[in-house]
Amino acid sequence: MYRKSAIVGIGQTDISRKSGRTEWELALEASLAAIRDAGLEPSEIDGIVRFTLDNVNEHMMTRSLGVRDLRHFSQVGYGGMASSAVIGNAAAAIAAGQASAVLVYRSLNVSSGVRYGRAERVISVKDGLNYASGPRIAGGAFTGPYGMLVPGHALSVAAARYRYEHGLTDDQLTETLGRIAVQQREYAQTNPRALTNGRPLSMEEYRASRIISTPLRLFDYCLETDGAIALVLVDADRARALRRDPAYVLSANQSMVPDFAEPISVYKKDICQLGPASSIARLYEDARIQPSDLAFAQLYDSFSPLVLFHLETYGIAPRGQGWKYLIEQGIGPDSPLPANTHGGHLSEGYLHGMNHVTEAVRQLRGQATNQVHREGPALVASNGMSALVLDR
Amino acid sequence: MIYPNPDELGAPFWEAARRHELVIQHCEECNTCWHPPLPRCPNCQSGRLAWRPVSGRAVVYSYTDVHHSVHAVTESWMPYRLYLIDLEEGPRLVSNQRNVRNKPGMEIGTPVRVAFEDIGNNVVLPQFVPAEDAAR
Fold first, then answer.
1. Average pLDDT for residues A235-256, to the nearest whole number?
2. Which tens digit of pLDDT belongs to each residue from B17-36?
3. Active-site residue (options: A105, A284, A300, A325)
4. Any chain B CB within 8 A of the CB of A353?
């Protein structure tokens, strides 16, 4: 895996509240842009890795994109937790010789279409009565009847538990999460792609925002947006021939162990730990780095507490100390590890983790709107279930 | 209300709740217990499983007060408190308290005991109340 493949193309649509177009159309626009950025033709794409959750299938793309001979296609489930894994699986397919140019995309109208922040998608109605089914955590048979219906509910109880376990006052937790939300909004102010560009957020405004579910406020929740994003990976030799600045895949992991085998679990012993330490140690070992070598990080942030939990899970701050790290150092441009430099899901838009990968690529190319001026690899982390280390 | 629509695996939990009994899946080989239910023991993978009554004694692991309704059915519940409850035996359950404005809630670490709430449609929800409260 180590440096055997690289991301050579990125593309995306506008991020909006209402695209007015089908997800298929959006996927095509982003994919064509990524293929063009790679210096390839659509006919050269011979692999597709996508989210299981995507409504745009590989057969839809094959018929409309100009793909001629698709010889590897695969999917990764678990929503946003797939965002690093789809890149990892593309890199694995290339390393195994199953494909030579792999397209990865995510297309979603989750603002104008089915909203992940609403529960209609998990509650069924029969004879006028509402039912919750199945083993899913938010809206399942054992959670839905009590009103645990959306991922935000699970993250709220996790944040409350963190406050209790580590002895924070309400105000310290607010300050911690506010540092994340306000910094990411500040990054978005220089990012023309960000939905919140032109709408800065002060700490006072953050603190005054309404409570959605304690202890989380409006600005602790990600945006709901429409848009699509795509990336192209090729093997390392071809990457060097195509461009001077490929983003090489140093390592990629997926992780599933029994106690972490439910995405957004409320049942695992420690709900603030995102993934098992052994898997994360191997991610860094495979990349031949230490966490302290990282130049920047892009951390999945459907909710602000996840940034805090990522810092502790991925060895950037000691367990229970992440909140102090955020208050004292933060994730800004001059912090030890700038993170979510595009504004993240909280302030750029919700492209389901894939905009974190493209931001890492822009940073490594030296073309980011909030360019980090330091050499070193990038961590892209997707909720403890998948992660990547990329470098030039 | 939102009613559980359990499959064959989860049905015994709700049947017991209807009788005001809290039962949890146990392994007859290694005595491990867990929730939510599984078709095999997560520890030894045995299929010799049994639903056994548990003490109903527990503590509050965490909670959130939900102020923003995400479905029409919960609009009349607002705000509601959503709990994670750790049973003395280990497994964790979800429970709630609806319409909690100006009502005392239970804090993290509060000792609680099971209580049963009939929500109609032949469904009884296991819920939790402070351990020192008299039986309701």
1. 97
2. 999 999 999 999 999 999 99
3. A300
4. no
